[in-house]
Design brief:
This protein has two helices and eleven strands, in the order E-E-E-E-H-H-E-E-E-E-E-E-E. It has helices spanning about 40-45, 55-60; strands at about 5-15, 20-25, 30-35, 40, 70-75, 80-85, 90, 95, 100-105, 110-115, 120-125. It starts with 5 loop residues before the first strand and ends in a 15-residue tail after the last strand. By secondary structure, the chain is mainly beta. The strands form two sheets. A six-stranded antiparallel sheet has the order 2-1-11-10-7-8, with no helix packed on it. A five-stranded mixed sheet has the order 4-3-5-6-9.
Amino acid sequence: MAEEALHLKLTGIAGYIQGQTFVLKPGSITVIGRSRSCDISLRELRQSGDEGAVEGAKEDHYKTVSRQHVRISFKGEGEIQIEDLSHNGSFLDGARVQGSVTVSDLGRKSRELRLGTNECFKLELAKAEKAKASPKIVVKRK
């Protein structure tokens, strides 16, 4: 039996993305930001939220995310490249990403990626059957 490919699972743990799950396949390149043209658009998540009125502090944090904030290239084999495209910074486990960084230890431990001041993802590898995206969220493909 062939070994099942691992997927990159992004789980929102803070901000408008909290509780949302996104699954990236090996070889994918994904841009995250406020723009509707992004593969993962925080603007669309913000507008589809069930909260009704926008909370002030949450909105302030949202504004620190650039239109095109970060590009994630999932090379497979547990290796990803994170490229900061923003003005306010992307942070991997609390350390600012300078330009781009390659992460090759996702098979051993999960990592935390923060966009701006609060929007935060947990990054981890998962087998396809365990890597399920949130039902109403679709990662756009170009």
